Structure formats: structure tokens, C-alpha cells
Amino acid sequence: MKKLTFLFSFVFLIFEINAQISLVKNVPFSNIGPAIMSGRVVDLAVNPQNPTEFYVAYASGGLWYTNNNGTSFTAISENAPTQNMGAIAVDWKNGTIWAGTGESNSSRSSYAGIGVLKTNDNGKTWHNVGLTDSQHIGRIIINKNNPNEVVVAVIGNLYTPNKQRGVYKTTDGGANWTNISKSLPQDLWVSRVIASQHKKERVFVTLNGYRNDDFKPYVFVSDDFGNTWKTIQNGLPNAPVNVIKEDPENENLLFLGNDQGVYVSFDHGENWSVLENAMP
User: Fold this and answer.
1) d(CA 101, CA 190)
2) Of the four, 53, 247, 271, 277, which is 20 to 30 A from 67 by CA?
3) Phi first, then psi: what are they for 255, rounded to 5°?
4) Predicted confidence band of residue 34 (pLDDT cuts 50, 70, 90)
5) What is d(CA 220, CA 175) in angstroms, rounded to the nearest whole number?
6) Interatomic CA distance for residues 18 and 35, integer angstroms
7) Can you name the residues that pair with 168 across neighbouring β-strands?
8) Rounded to two decimals, what is the model's pTM?
């Protein structure tokens, strides 16, 4: 027993001596991640003139800013009344940030929001500018010709109806909002709103009604920033539409994703056909 005790004492002594003469014992260690996270990323806003500067919105972790390509981030929503984000848009020329609150991913763990927030001082102060019953916001688009004109895609309650659902627009910086989707099918979820890269007044909207057992394709385009809408769904099957994209070089070339696959239009949405080659 004495020999065993001596052996253990000798081993611990060796470890202690090695620790004292270790070359790295005084070197500080830092957590470089990604052990710490802020939840699901729901949106990004990148400076088109400087791609190393951008904002990242987290579902329940607020809004973060970097100007060194992500080497470091600064939290800018600590003074905001909520950290639940769904969509963001930045007027880079004037330094205005719009944040649609309420996670846009529809799941049982999605947290609701409190409307549209706006800051003119990079997050030092935030103002709620309306749509307080929107619950969840999926997209914000700023008119390139008029930064006070903004379109917001309101998802609303995830599983039950509510009046403040649809596509809304403000022309006075958020002081007043108008539902510009009253002429579109009602009680559907806005699955996507995108701005055209070719015409500043053009926006596309897709709606999704699968929660109501409505599987029709709902795709619309507006050339006057939502004042009037045109249906562009010829050739699409009965399947919920999830996303639409415009080719950056050819304005007549559109791509669409639904629950059955990918579809393409070569005539600005007048006709659609399935994109089959090399697709799963």
C-alpha cells in the first residue's frame, strides 16, 4: 500500500513539474467559435458598393453588423424592443435600416414579432413604424427611386387567419401603410416578394395556400410597385409556389420553385415549362 501511494505521489509530482515548465502555460486562449450562436439566420443585407459590409438577421438573436467581411460583428439591436427578426432591408445611401420582426420560417418554434422597426443611426435608437399585428414578416423591399416607399410581405399568424396578412406598402417612410394585395387572392401566405433587377418599379409576388388545402399556383407581377398586379402562372401545375427569381442579365428569363420542382419562363412569365435536364 505504501508503495502504491508513493507511486501515485511521484506521478502527480511529474505532472506538476511539467505544468510549471510548459511552454504554453502562460499563453491565453480565446474562443474562436462557432460554439456560440444566435439562432437561425433569416436574412442578409449586403452593401452593393462594398461587399465586406453587411448585416445579418437572426430568428431570435437580433441584428448584427460587420464592415470587415465577418471578422468581427457588432450587435445593433440591443436597444430594439424585440430580438425576433424576420427580414431586413437597408437604404445604404441614407443609412436607414428597416427590420421586419417575427421569424419568417414557419415552424412551431418560430417566435412572433411586433411589426416593422426602423433606425436611422445604425441601431442606437429604434422606432416601431407600424403593422404591429403582422406577427411574422418575410420580406422588405425599398423602392430604389424613392427610399420612403417600402413594400413589406406580411405572413401573419402561422396557422390561423388574421386581418393584417398580405403585401403592404408605405409611401411616407412608415407613417401610413396600405394593403396593396386586396385585389389578390385572400387568406393566403406570402411566400416570396422580390424586386426586379431590370426595372425599379417592378416587383414579383408568390402566394402559398397549402395550409388551407389550396394547391393552386399563385404568381403575380407589378410594374408600378404594387398599385396593380398581373397574373403570370400559365403552364404551372397545381403545386404551392415557394420562390421566384429573375435572371440578372435577361429580364425575360424567370425561374420558379414549387413543391414539384423548378420551372422556367423565357417570356417574362407568360408561359412556364418544367426545367428537367440535370435536375433531381
Assistant:
1) 15
2) 247
3) -125, 145
4) very low
5) 27
6) 30
7) 152, 179
8) 0.77
